[in-house]
Write a structure and sequence with these properties.
With 103 residues, this protein is mainly alpha-helical. 64% of the residues lie in helices and 6% in strands. The chain has a two-stranded antiparallel ribbon with strand order 1-2. Helix 1 packs antiparallel against helix 2 and helix 1 packs parallel to helix 3. It is elongated, with a radius of gyration of 21 Å.
């Protein structure tokens, strides 16, 4: 492991040269990051709530399905270019939880 300063280069044993530039984040970039973090936090909170409804409540499955659709719609609103992540991440997660805790 090598520790190096900003704006300096090191050469790896593999021959690759690596440079790490220090860039000050602008107020606009910090705000964008905060907005993005809030969106992710909202989606995570919704998904965790659904997981709890499946595993720790007797909430009817039809109502859980409605909550899942609300989550899918919210992801589509906040991250329109990443809606396929719902199908890859949350759909299998909720299905597995239902199989494990509801069958």
């Amino acid at each position: 492991m090598t520790l190096f300063e900003f704006d300096r280069s090191i050469t790896c044993v593999c021959g690759e040269t690596v440079t790490f530039k220090h860039e000050q984040m602008t107020d606009e970039a910090l705000l964008e990051r905060k907005v993005e973090d809030n969106k992710v936090r909202e989606i995570t909170t919704m998904a965790d709530r659904i997981a709890f409804l499946i595993t720790g409540s007797d909430y009817p499955l039809i109502d859980i399905y409605i909550e899942e659709q609300k989550l899918r719609e919210r992801i589509s609103e906040l991250f329109p270019d990443k809606i396929d992540l719902y199908d890859l991440i949350y759909e299998p997660r909720f299905r597995r939880l239902k199989e494990q805790f509801r069958v």
